[in-house]
Amino acid sequence: MPGACVSGLKDLKNCVEAQQFDRAMLEELFVIADAMSEVKPGSRESTMLQGFLMSTLFYEPSTRTRLSFEGAMGKLGGGILSTESAGEYSSAAKGETLEDTIRTVEGYADIVVLRHFTAGAARRAADAIESPVINAGDGPGQHPTQALLDTYTIYNELGRLDDIKVGLVGDLANGRTVRSLATMLCNFENFVFVAPEVVKMKDDIKAELDANGAKWRESEDLLGVASEVDVLYQTRIQKERFGDRLDEYEACRGVYTVDEKVMAAMKKTSIVMHPLPRLDEIAPECDADPRAAYFRQARNGLFIRMALLKVLLKV
Amino acid sequence: MPGACVSGLKDLKNCVEAQQFDRAMLEELFVIADAMSEVKPGSRESTMLQGFLMSTLFYEPSTRTRLSFEGAMGKLGGGILSTESAGEYSSAAKGETLEDTIRTVEGYADIVVLRHFTAGAARRAADAIESPVINAGDGPGQHPTQALLDTYTIYNELGRLDDIKVGLVGDLANGRTVRSLATMLCNFENFVFVAPEVVKMKDDIKAELDANGAKWRESEDLLGVASEVDVLYQTRIQKERFGDRLDEYEACRGVYTVDEKVMAAMKKTSIVMHPLPRLDEIAPECDADPRAAYFRQARNGLFIRMALLKVLLKV
Amino acid sequence: MPGACVSGLKDLKNCVEAQQFDRAMLEELFVIADAMSEVKPGSRESTMLQGFLMSTLFYEPSTRTRLSFEGAMGKLGGGILSTESAGEYSSAAKGETLEDTIRTVEGYADIVVLRHFTAGAARRAADAIESPVINAGDGPGQHPTQALLDTYTIYNELGRLDDIKVGLVGDLANGRTVRSLATMLCNFENFVFVAPEVVKMKDDIKAELDANGAKWRESEDLLGVASEVDVLYQTRIQKERFGDRLDEYEACRGVYTVDEKVMAAMKKTSIVMHPLPRLDEIAPECDADPRAAYFRQARNGLFIRMALLKVLLKV
């Protein structure tokens, strides 16, 4: 498989698929991310990437993801070439291929962060140039840095990656995030899926978990699941996936909500995660609870991306 | 009042309302702004904010204001996370609250500059996070850095803040700028308002001036006012405020224009200010006059914002 | 002529027209560009422009050109104030003149890179302010940095500027690029024009070449021309120039295509250039040929712009 696991982080040439990272590489990366969280303004470390340039080439806007990458580069003193309108990019509009665009941008930047609406675009980009490419989401394809930051958050909050029971809640059919996460964690976790009927976890992921010997089951009892898991990973029911079927959307929405009652059922040492943005699937009353890890999770995206930039730029 | 005057600049946690600044704080800030105007490329001072990141989170575009803030951060070596499409920000479009967005951005940036279309948005943002927030204009609410740069310009050009007579000319009803300025200067200035009938200064500001013992009067004699004031502050009649009533707009426009005749009536030591952009309310023939201070005023925005960033980031 | 050749690069105040550069200045600039291509991340040279700010003020989007300039500034440690929506720039939309906008931006930035849809806009901007202005394309007017990077590519690839035969192919009527290049090279090159009838090189450029004693001829034999030139400069037939006349566009398109057969006819020491983006006027099969210089040409844009920034900022 192109981009499959290499012998270690030092040989990593790009970040295109979650499957590129084996257990050893994850742990190595998380140690670097820990160090990144300690970088202070004005310190020597904060100029580590001085003189390097990162291009954020976004064919669809995703301000949150873009700012997280640009923050990571900025925190290490690197420069940023930013565009969130690459879709209207005059060259693309004139019919230029993705490969030509990427080769041109490689002329200006040392590393390219690509967001695209087509599955497989990141792999095509990585194959077209020598410089490293980071996949910041390619349509229904992958979003590996989200899976990395989720896994890092579990490691960082719970202090371990093994013997963890994860409850995935919400839209498990369409959520690229939970699907990638399940793939990344499949070697060392147990899963419980809690989802309304129409957005249940799809069979491909279940088969992947089976193939890796990971345990999973489905449940409709959110309170029960909350009481037994170490991580309760809530997701948003994505209205935009339902198209005209707004009645189905309304039926799904609000079925499984994390509120004070759910928090009360949870273990003291458990955490609540969410990829954000949220609507009302986590009640604001939960925010003050120290087990509400979702804003720390977003912040961990900064540290994981700092670590990835350091690794890929071989600094 | 939330955010009201604190004991001094060193305790300032954010910049949300003009009322946060008392006389002592203004003077302290202006001394810092003076120093900022001396920062040279390549100097030690020009890396003062190295490793800090500022997010310019703009829910409505204001390129001028955004560039001024980003210039201030850049001049001190800080990094910039920029978005002027926060309104279409995918998360906001999906229904995320301002508070959630701000908390997420706080994870990436050390300071947030917010432009929003809703009065009070900056206060909500400042209350949601620990990191400092600067209000870059929140709808019909406040635009305190504009008031600061205006006041700094008066201090910088005239060498004092007391015993100054200010003539405010133009659209005094709708101009957030002149309203904020009147509030900031109310303790130590005399005012003359020169405005077409339909865009006269509103009663709330007049009452605030009265309450503070500030002198004000209204006049229709621009030449007379020009001859007596120290500062002639011209503003644009804002077409966009008139909606369909274009005949009213046309009636107001051009009633009070600053031209060579007005300049000739002014004292040698007086100055002309304007928040820009201008249309024809100041004739281009005035630009070469040394008393035309409006482009210096725009530049002072850079120095004031550099000073604010330094103060709020506690460097 | 305003902005015509000055006595040397050290007196250059802006970069508005290709005609500002005489032979000596070009050679001096190319030596600096060579040095720029050696600047390494983390080196002393990579902080050369630390504390300087460049504003990319784009009234029409051109992501490629913008990123190239921003990359150049970033590679030398300078800061960037970026906008590609200056056309919707709230101030411009409110009726502010270009001169006022430029004067305001001068208050924030040390150098302004202007892209505008109106011929002559860059000259107006340069006349309005003291700080240097670089023309990044002003409508049907000039795009001097493209001509500079093209000429630099010839110098860099062939090792000389004299005794070079250039074949210009494709849309020679509308292509600002080839027209500017012909102007810049008119003192020391021979030209062969290969173009479909409706997009032939216009008489004004032919007259300019005649006036400078440059040799030129027209040909319909691409293979023959390929075998004799040192530089085969292919261009895109620009669909957007044909408006409704799509049949004319289709008739032109594909008449002269560079493919393996053309490459086979070329000399071993010749190169193929293209300003990019390309559609199918150069077959992808040519990309791997070492004589395919077009992506190196794009990269040279970075080095030329780094050199220009250094020269204009007098560092």
From TrEMBL, chains A, B, C:
Q: Which SUPFAM superfamilies match?
A: Aspartate/ornithine carbamoyltransferase (SSF53671)
Quote the EC number. 2.1.3.2
Check the UniProt entry and state the signal peptide residues, or none. Answer: none
Name the Pfam families for this protein: OTCace, OTCace_N
Q: Which PROSITE patterns match?
A: CARBAMOYLTRANSFERASE
Domain of life, per UniProt, equals Eukaryota
**GO-annotated molecular function:** amino acid binding; aspartate carbamoyltransferase activity
Q: Which residue intervals define the domain Aspartate/ornithine carbamoyltransferase Asp/Orn-binding in the entry?
A: 163-311
Pathway assigned to this chain's UniProt record: Pyrimidine metabolism; UMP biosynthesis via de novo pathway; (S)-dihydroorotate from bicarbonate: step 2/3
Give the main EC class.
Answer: transferase
**Catalysed reaction equations from the record:** carbamoyl phosphate + L-aspartate = N-carbamoyl-L-aspartate + phosphate + H(+)
Q: Where is the Aspartate/ornithine carbamoyltransferase carbamoyl-P binding domain?
A: 13-155
Q: Name one GO biological process term.
A: 'de novo' pyrimidine nucleobase biosynthetic process
The question of whether Metal-binding is a record keyword is answered with no
What keywords are annotated for this sequence in UniProt? Pyrimidine biosynthesis, Transferase
Family (UniProt): Belongs to the aspartate/ornithine carbamoyltransferase superfamily. ATCase family.
Q: What does this protein do?
A: Catalyzes the condensation of carbamoyl phosphate and aspartate to form carbamoyl aspartate and inorganic phosphate, the committed step in the de novo pyrimidine nucleotide biosynthesis pathway.
Q: What does the annotation say about its assembly with partners?
A: Homotrimer.
What protein name is recorded for this chain?
A: aspartate carbamoyltransferase
The organism that produces this protein has a lineage beginning with: Eukaryota, Viridiplantae, Chlorophyta, Mamiellophyceae, Mamiellales
